[in-house]
Design goal:
By secondary structure, this protein is mainly β. The protein has 2 domains: 8-45, no CATH class; 55-220, Porin (Beta Barrel), CATH 2.40.160.20. 14% of the residues lie in helices and 57% in strands. It is built from 4 helices and 11 strands. Strands 3-4-5-7-8-9-10-11 form an 8-stranded antiparallel beta barrel. A two-stranded antiparallel sheet has the order 1-2. Strand 9 and strand 10 (173-191) form a beta hairpin. The chain starts with 7 loop residues before the first strand and ends with a strand.
């Protein structure tokens, strides 16, 4: 038997035409068998990471404390490295070698060379939100004329504790706020005035003092 249709298949010598309606029904049946949402490609399965996940993968951060810069031009830098999702190790230094109104009755200074190592704990993710930290710190200092004529210089070693909050500006920039206080032992010498050189006391003593106010810019890599 000869089919009148151009598109056909032969079954047992008979002719079965494939009409547009048959093609539509077959396509609908196949679509119903597919899982919801259609076939998924590898690229569709990969979703962009959220900001918290990005911060969890971030490792290195470099900070510059603007509050130290404004306090008599104290140069400073801090480096942090994430070792776990909630922990960073830190190390840094502060430096000030300036004397203001030198050789005058109102001379003042807050010179220092400070070096520290420590750690921070972040309850949520590293470089995100609240944090608490501690550090071991050594400081060579000479300060005087700030609240009176007496000057003290010495070498101090101790432990600093503090906490704060990191405000996320974007994925690579934070503004980091914090407060630290520290205590330990110092070997010191005191002078009657900032430049006269007249000793009034010396020895070793314990101390508890404010350490650092942080309003820092933090770059994250």
């Amino acid at each position: 038997m000869k089919c009148k249709h151009s598109c056909r298949e032969v079954r047992g010598g008979t002719c079965a035409s494939i009409t547009p309606v048959a093609l539509f029904r077959a396509s609908l049946f196949i679509l119903l068998l597919l899982p919801p949402g259609g076939p998924r490609t590898a690229s569709a399965q990969r979703q962009p990471a959220g900001r918290e996940e990005t911060r969890a993968r971030a490792r290195l951060a470099v900070s510059q404390n603007l509050a130290d810069d404004l306090f008599l031009g104290t140069l400073n830098a801090e480096l942090q490295y994430a070792v776990r999702r909630n922990w960073t190790l830190a190390g840094g230094a502060r430096y000030n070698n300036w004397t203001w109104r030198a050789r005058r009755d109102d001379q003042f200074e807050a010179r220092q060379k400070t070096f520290f190592v420590g750690a921070r704990w972040w309850p949520w993710y590293t470089y995100s939100g609240w944090w608490a930290g501690g550090k071991l710190q050594y400081q060579e200092y000479n300060r005087g004329g700030l609240s009176g004529p007496e000057t003290e210089e010495g070498d101090a070693f101790g432990f600093s504790l503090g906490g704060g909050y990191a405000v996320q500006v974007n994925s690579w920039l934070n503004v980091d706020f914090g407060l630290f206080g520290w205590g330990g032992m110092t070997r010191y010498v005191t002078y009657a005035c900032p430049y006269c050189g007249q000793r009034t006391d010396e020895g070793t003593k314990a101390f508890v003092l404010p350490d650092e106010v942080r309003v820092s810019v933090q770059f994250i890599f």
